[in-house]
Amino acid sequence: MAPVWRYATAAGLLAVLAGCSTADPGPTAEQAGQTLQQHITELMDMVDPAETVITDPGGKDVPCGEDGVKRTYAVKSTFSRFDDHLIAEMAGRLSTTWGYEVHEPYKFGSPRTTLKLASSRISITVETPSDHEAMAAGETDCIPRG
After folding, report:
1. Distance of CA 85 to the CA centre of its chain
2. Which residue in 25, 77, 105, 125 has its CB near the most CB atoms, within 10 A?
3. Which three-class secondary structure state does DSSP give residue 133?
4. Please, are residues 100 and 125 in contact by the beta-carbon 8 Å criterion?
5. Which residues contact 19 (CB under 8 A, 6 or more apart)?
């Protein structure tokens, strides 16, 4: 009976220790950068612009913090229609499609808002500099190398 008890205790202890392993480190800068680019590209496709131009192609490590890097990506789109609810539509699509949460809300007189997707280490700012333009610029968090 004693050997069975010892094995059961050892198995239970191993299960507990396995559950206490290090936390998921999250995506690398490269993975987060790819997700950032994909989300901005798909977001702009969803809001149906007349034209989209990449203003920051990203794809390279930008040094930050102590031995960290981040990635960036940005686009500017023009629209044939006037839509004074475009920021709300873009923010809503980021929230409902991927689960982004508002980090810096829209303020009267400042046509922009920033949303964050913590699990992917991404922030995206959407803004409308004029009646027929929208910009989406994003960056990853500062992610340690390696």
Report:
1. 22
2. 77
3. strand
4. no
5. none
Distance CA 127, CA 142 (A): 23
pLDDT in tens, 121-133: 999 999 998 888 9
Strands, E, within 57-105: which ranges?
62-64, 68-70, 72-78, 101-104
Report the C-alpha gap between 119 and 24 in whole angstroms.
10
Length of the chain: 146
* 133-140/101-104 β-pairing: unpaired
> What pLDDT was estimated at residue 3?
54
Q: Are 54 and 37 in contact (CB under 8 A)?
A: no
Alpha-carbon gap, residue 140 to 138, rounded angstroms = 7
**Domains in the chain: boundaries:** 27-144
| Angle (nearest 5°) at CA 108 between 102 and 113 | 25
Note the pLDDT tens digit of each residue in 99-109: 999 999 888 87
pTM: 0.81
